[in-house]
Amino acid sequence: MKLLHTENFDISTVKGFLAEDEGEGLYQLALTASEMGPCLEVGSYCGKSTVFLGAACQQHGQTLFAVDHHRGSEEHQLGEEYHDPDLFDGSVQKMDSFRTFRDTLSRARLEDTVVPIVAPSTVAARHWATPLALVFIDGGHAYETALGDYRSWAAHVMPGGLLLIHDIFPNPADGGQAPYDIYKLALASGLFEALPTINTLGVLRRL
C-alpha cells in the first residue's frame, strides 16, 4: 500500500489501537465495499483506521464519513488507563483529538475523500438517509455507547454491504464485552451473516 508508506507519510506514525493485520483487513474490505457506495466509521480518534478506509475509498472516488466527537472515550479521559496528555486541551480541560486527526488527513492526502463529522454518533445518525456500503464501529466500549452505535448505523448498511466491529473478544478474560455483545446482536437480528474474523475485527455481511 504505497499511499500509506510514502516519503511524506508513514501509517506507523499515527496514534491508534489497530493491529497491522486489522488495518490491512480494513483496507481490503473497504476496497471491495467502496465499489458499491460510500463508507462510514464510528470512532476515528487520531485517524489510523481512517487512513486505511479512506485510502480504499479514494481508489474508487468514494467518500468516507468519519464520525467522532473527538472528546475521547471513557478510557481516554484524564487519569484513565489510555489517557494521552498530548491530546489533552488544558484550556478547556478536555481531551481533543480533532487537530491531530486533521493533520493525519492532510499528511495522508485524504482531505478530498474523508468527510469528518464532529458529533456524538447517535446525534450524527439522527437524520441520516444515505445507504452505506460499509460501516466500521470502533467507538466507546461502554455497553450503552456500543449499543447506541449499533442501533444508529447497522440499519443503514445496504444489502451486500459490510458491518465491521472492532475489539471482538469472545473470552471475557481477553477484553471488554460490549463490542462482542453488539456483534452477537447483529447475528441474532437475521440481517447479517458472519465472515471470517481478522484478529479482533468482526466482519459481517448484510443479507
From TrEMBL:
Keywords recorded for this protein, A-Z: Methyltransferase, Transferase
Highest taxon of the lineage: Bacteria
Any one biological process term the GO annotation gives: methylation
GO CC annotation terms, alphabetical: plasma membrane
Gene Ontology terms for molecular function: methyltransferase activity
Pfam families: Methyltransf_24
Record-given protein name: Putative O-methyltransferase YrrM
Organism: Simiduia aestuariiviva
